[in-house]
Amino acid sequence: MEAIRLKEPGVWETYKLNRPSVFLEPNQVLVKVNKIGICGTDLHAFKGTQPFFEYPRVLGHELAVEVLEIGAEVSNVTIGDRCSVEPYYNEKISQAVKRGKTNCGEYLRVLGVHVDGGMQGIMIVSSEFLHPSNALSDDQLALIEPLAIGCHAVDRAEISHEDIVLVIGAGPIGLGTIQFAQLTGARVIAMDIDDHKLEKCKEITNISDTINALGDVETLLTELLDGDLPTVVMDATGSEKSMLNTFKYAAAGGTIVFIGLFLGDIVFNDPYFHKKELTLKASRAALGSDFSRIIRLIEAGNINPTPFITHRIKFDDVPTEFEKLYTYKGDLIKAVIEL
Description:
28% of the residues lie in helices and 26% in strands. It has eleven helices and 17 strands. Strands 3, 4, 5, 8, 9, 16 and 17 form a seven-stranded mixed beta sheet that branches.
């Protein structure tokens, strides 16, 4: 079959790929890629603005796959199983990994970013990174990874049912973050600069409180909350301006979690930060346990990511159709590549 890689920003390259004929290691699995979710990382890579990215690269880390062959010691999946792929692995066992923080190891590598990803149709992965569910659709399996980003961020925030949570950014990561924050029983508010995205957010998450960030946000928040401010602020925008504004929106004693990132420095007023006694956290990627937990939640009907998908692209059409995704603006929530 043909594989597709990003040769350089804005330039796709198609090449022939033969089915791997190498002998599988005992813990390895040969899989066929069925669906690929398109992430903001992929969109930034195409434009040449993605941090820590090298070209050429086969994109694709939000993957739904089917097991074709298994190594001699593989026990968690069998031939024919459909799985979500945990796309992060550590080349070396660093201090963080020893402490269970596999998502932020010093030698972390991500499929489709640091190493080639799923736009090659067939690939070999270690069995430990496969999370099976034959009850979920390929669409749902492809969305486990972006959901895991929000799931891990909510865990980082340590939200209780008494909290007021402001989630900034109503894209796929923000939507997932909202859904997991709602499961804690906390009051959740969504914010974005696009009213159309906020309406979509209401449809998908059934959230009642939304704010347009182009308004006087502090006034809008205090009016909505009877003079109070959010105790947890979670920013999923990757926007410098938005991230800096979170210090104003958080209540005294509150917590800020940065989910997105940008290439630059975060600078804030230290006396103001201390006056509020704020807690600032970063959230990177997700843990393997998040994938399994999300699969169970979807199977139980507690989370439904399928409405995230607004656009579809055939695999062979990626070189001609991918750039059109930038024209959809607020109408685009999540695009999926179908193989």
